[in-house]
Amino acid sequence: MSYRSEPYYWSAVETLSALKARKIGALELLDLMVKRQSDLDGATNAVIETHIDEARVAAKAFDDAKGKGGALAGLPMTIKESFEVEGFHTNAGIPDLANYVSRSDSNVAARVKAQGAIIWGKTNVPLATADHQSYNPVYSLTRNPWNLERTVGGSSGGSAAALASGFTALEIGSDIGGSIRLPSHYCGVWGHKPTHGVVSGAGHVPPFPGTKPLTALSVYGPMARNAADLELGMDILAGALPGSGWKLDLPRPPQKSLSEFRVAVCTHWFPVDPAYAQAIESFADELEKQGATVTRLKAAPPVERYEDLYIAALFAVIGSSLPESELETYERAASRHPKGSLPDRVARATRSSLGAYSSMVDQQNKLMSIWADWFQDFDIFLCPVSMTVAFPHQTEDGHGPVPQMDRVLDVGGEIRPYMENLYWPGVATLAHLPSTVRPLLDMVRGMPAGVQCIGPAFGDYKTLRFAALCDEAFGGFVCPPGYGGNARN
What we know:
- By secondary structure, the protein is an alpha+beta fold.
- The chain has 2 domains: about 400 residues, Amidase signature (AS) enzymes (Alpha-Beta Complex), CATH 3.90.1300.10; about 60 residues, no CATH class.
- Helix 8 links the parallel strand 9 and strand 10.
- Helix 7 packs antiparallel against helix 15.
- The chain is globular and about 65 Å long.
- The two termini are about 15 Å apart.
């Protein structure tokens, strides 16, 4: 294996190969990553807590064992703050939890630790993991390494920034409203939103520590700097909790080349910046040159009022755990907007009855059946991740979902409600579909841009195979200016 850049920009697969071959020691690598974060993270604020001494002990133990261990043995990595890791604070930026220290590991942390990974730091999130910007009253704001005036996305924003900056080769995010996919898109890295239910969220905050995870829409998955590392992450993260009584067996795809994929492209279902839409269309052109069968959809898939159902279901789940005082705050914010507007629909959804939610689930099940039929004719649904590329920070109006009801975004010169940025991620979330995000080939308005590669339910390895073949055909990670390493890795 050749190593094409400095160790801090090696992929996880390359890093593990070098550790196994003893071309670099785990302690040496850890110290290099920690020094890089110390030198460069002051401007971005991606990593918000570190446990270096404990990590050095674990790294030395790996070196003393002469490279023996599991699939991630000796790999130093960071993890999203909202996952419990024994001995670390876990508060999701919630001031009432600022002093809470985890006494056990979340499912995902336990899985990577069991394979020998060394978790040395945690990465920043929005308040209660509920925004497309990563800032909170406990750890402040994380800035995009491509442009410090722009968002890193959320809620796995610190994770994406750490990957782009070369502080870690592998991360783990959570996603209910695009929280893996948007940060990957905004920061020029890779992320995978799994099929719903294949990775356990036990030990994720929110909800509050010690309570069962939200299960209706939330998922948990890997983030990295290429698709091969995402697949490695899924191999480790996916599966049942011990003693649960069920076993997961995700199918492996038959496709060996891009020419074997049937790809449908849609860039007009929801609002999107024309420049970003054109970049996706250009990417589709390149796929055709590789032999893929590409169909440009003249209309969105046959699903009516998709966004209404997604918003209703999403905020019914969110509202189910909110106290009365916060529900009233939603209603006061919505009162400034017309009846039937997006803020009004959000506020009403937070008070959904059990009967109303049961009706939503019934509609959701019908939707999933429609998608299953649709994917008989296609392998990949290619679409935007969000309305536009990383936008300038909007953080002076408070934290959490309520201020977002009044915000707007410039979408290629058109002003749109901020919360419409949930629509494109909702395509995969509502239908419980897997979605892999990888960067496009060209920058858009001076920023990196990604594309969603959505597949059929339980087709996680199909979307990952598609993304990996794109990596082979089009190249991989590009580091932000001023961050060193090769221009294209």
